[in-house]
Amino acid sequence: MKSFLLSTAFFLLAVMSLSAQNNIKIVAPPKVVTDTFFNKYRIKDPYRWLENLNSPQTQEWVKEENKLSKTVLAKASYHTNFYHDLEKYSLSRYRTPEKLGKYYFSYLYYDNTTVPALFYRRSMQGRPMLLVDPTTLTTKNSDIVMLQDYSVSKDSKYLAYLYNINGSDWRKIGVVDLETGKETSDHLTGIKFSGLVWRGHGFYYSVFSQNGKFGTTVDEKVYYHRLGTPQNDDKLIFKRKNTETTCRYLMTSNERFLVIEEENRAKAKENIYYIDYQDKQPHIMPLVTHVPNAFSILDYHDGKFIARSFFHANNGCIVAIDPAHPYKLQTLVPAYSEALLLRVETFADRLVAVYQSNQHPILTVYNYSGKLLYTMKFPVASTLSGFYGGYYDPEIIFYFTSYTVPPVVYRFNLHSFKMELTDRTEVHFNFKDIVYREVEYPSKDSVMVPMILIYEKGLKRNGDNPAILKAYGGFGIVSSGHFNPGIVNFIHHGGLFAFANIRGGGDKGSAWAAAGKGIHKQNSFDDFIAAAEYLIKEGYTRKEKLGTTGASNGGLVVAACAIQRPDLFKVVVPEAAPLDMLRFEKFTAGHWWTREYGSAADSTGFKNLLQYSPYQNIKDSVNYPVMLVLTADNDDRVPPFNSYKFVARLQNRPAQKNLILLKSKHNAGHYHGSTWNLTLRETADIYGFILYELTKKQKAK
After folding, report:
1. C-alpha torsion sign, points 552, 507, 97, 388
2. Residue ranges of the chain with pLDDT lower than 50?
């Protein structure tokens, strides 16, 4: 008890001492490195030294930054009680089984201090049995092991699983015998950005050359591993020795064809190959080559490959490709002008397709002649996922979820179209009092941009509501709602949550994505800025009450907009974001992103990157909004020194009066989730910090 009282006293002292200070800065001395581009442009980089993560100076600086952010976040949690309130909403009860072969699989937590383990059941209502415990996959107590993916053999005898250590993109593969529940002798290493595709008594996977922790990811090779054999004996199936291409591959449901889609990310072109294992001497054959990256092969049916296609189809369609005449596409389901094709699942005599129209997902069922058999529209800003079941199963499982709705699991019969709940989903709040409102607002160039607003009934448009604005807006990714107890808790504290479907994302088709890509990337930022202006103009909030957060590309969006329009936001939280855009392509997978962002090796791309790169556009004379910049020391997707350099440059200017914080998580990667408690803490850090900054009383000037 004495120890507890002392620690509490020290905590309160820290809170009081921090309250007495306007700003705290961790000194980072500039050591200017100058880069010359095209013999003309001289660009100064004062914090290049922070790219050396192993230097004692960098490590000491990060240590001091983490001390500061820990104290401030503790203060925010103390004043808002956000973490403890969050527990109530996060304890929602639901199960999300995945039916693969004969079994049902789920990720479940032992308790609040463990990472999720993989369990399986022999029936939907059966007792979950432990299959893979990630804590047994390492001998170091400090390691955090996370299961990333798994795949089941066609005969349901084996399950292969992917896992990483401390958040790295580099992964390992293990195999479990599903009949005995025991691990096999198969352990594969050096895996990265890999699929797990079974054929017979083995599976396909990918490896890349390892060039140091943050070296470029190059030279993908696809191998076939036969169970019970050493990895060194694995058969090389496909390779390409360059930096621009990556592969997707699948085995058709009859295990006759391996399809390999080779994508050139820089040129947005692809080659599609296949191997027919019914040939006397199976070998790689081209299906289509040097075509736009607009196809995704799904399966093989009645002598033709079935594919989702955006070739001359902005919103996507379903086509059949005859291997004998591959360039004569047969349209099975045409593109719809008002509905975006999100996904397609193939079954023996049915195609299940999910569309999105005006932010509403639509579930549809077709036969292979393209006849529409069933359609059902779901609520706005929700997500349909799962669609698990065997190829010949008459019944499948799918989930419905949204920002404030935990997953609801349905059984769905593909012939009678009967839909029924599989289990109860319980929440500890009145979800009926939460309002979803879909709006459109004009961007800088008058293009109308969709946005979802979420708040409790009775919210007054008096400009006094704390609000969080979020977006992603990159790589053609379609943004949809997934349950987040942090959003629920923020709303129940009187807040408004807004998600803007800005250009660069794929929410309105391929043309919408292209309009926020490359030299058009500024459109993404203009759309986001216009969203903030709309919320203020319409009386939902005001700039002193507006916060924003985003992760990865979304982190770039919020950071770039905070630098371009610091007058619009009170608090900004970029997470795992690329922020030095003149150097992003030099590390890890960055060279694959040049089509999305542009390349500093090209004069046009360089000029465009220089105009919006957050790190290069920090002005000495501006007091930028309060920021909490989040990263992880083992992020080998977007290296953490992007955040380090950004924070150092912001902090070490006399004009910066608002607080700038860095939180660098240890032993974590691009995706930070780990134990239940740590995941809740990270959510509370973001939403609780924003709430605190938006609701604390301002000192009189």
Report:
1. negative
2. 1-21, 699-701
CA distances from 604 to 197, 268, 519, 554, 608 (A): 41, 18, 8, 23, 6
* Rounded Cα–Cα distance for residues 438 and 507 (Å): 14
| Residue 173: per-residue pLDDT | 98
Q: pLDDT (tens digit, 9 = 90+) per residue, 200-252?
A: 999 999 999 888 889 988 899 999 999 999 999 999 999 987 667 899 999 99
pLDDT tens by residue, 438-477: 999 999 999 999 999 999 999 999 999 999 999 999 999 9
* Fold of the domain built from segment(s) 429-695: Rossmann fold (3.40.50)
Q: How many CA atoms lie within 13 A of 245 on its CB side?
A: 22
Instruction: Write the pLDDT tens digit of every residue in 294-340.
Output: 999 999 999 999 999 999 999 999 999 999 999 999 999 999 999 99
| Calpha distance 321→328 (Å, rounded) | 7
Q: Which residues are catalytic?
A: 552, 670
Side-chain-facing half-sphere of 304: CA atoms under 13 Å: 17
Mapped onto helix, strand or coil, the DSSP state of residue 59 is helix
In the chain, the amino acid numbered 397 is I
Residues 6+ apart with CB under 8 A from 166: 143, 144, 634, 667, 668, 669
DSSP run (H or E) holding 150: strand 145-152
Edge-first strand listing for the sheet containing 405-413: 382-388, 395-402, 405-413, 419-421
Torsion of CA 333, 336, 342, 343, to 10 degrees: -10
pLDDT score for 675 = 79
DSSP string, 362-425: EEEEE-TT--EEEEEE--TTEEEEEEE--TT-SEEEEEEEETTEEEEEEEEETTT--EEE-S--
pLDDT at 431: 82
* Pick from 145, 86, 93: nearest CA to 116: 145
C-alpha 98: how far from chain center? 20
Contact 63, 664 (CB under 8 A): no
CA dihedral sign of residues 109, 114, 116, 122 = negative
3-state secondary structure of 351: strand
